[in-house]
Amino acid sequence: MHGRHSSVTGPSPALRRLDPVQPSPDNGLDLVGAGGGRGGGGGGDGTGGPLRNRIRSLKGELIGSQSVPTAIQVTQLDGSLKELNDFVAQLNTAIATTMPNLYKQLADNNIGPGIGEPIKPIKLVGR
Fold it and tell me: What is the pTM of this model?
């Protein structure tokens, strides 16, 4: 348990300083890990959050229409595109800066992931 916290002493000072990023509509991270209703991903309700729903709805309207997009649809498309690009920028910051800083803090404080237990062979019940 080198470097890990115990129930007696509580989390190390480094762990207490970490501010986990939680998905929310405010930071756009409600898109991350959403399964999209196809059995994949983790967390969320499988819909992908408000932005994904707005994009799906707009896509359906545009594909189902026999005419050119309305001014409202173009405005919605522009807004969704900006919001999506803002999310991409936040995600890139997390990948390029936040995660490396987190890994450095963990390494500087001798905190590492546990190796875990080996996976046991699968056996049929009754054999």
Answer: 0.51
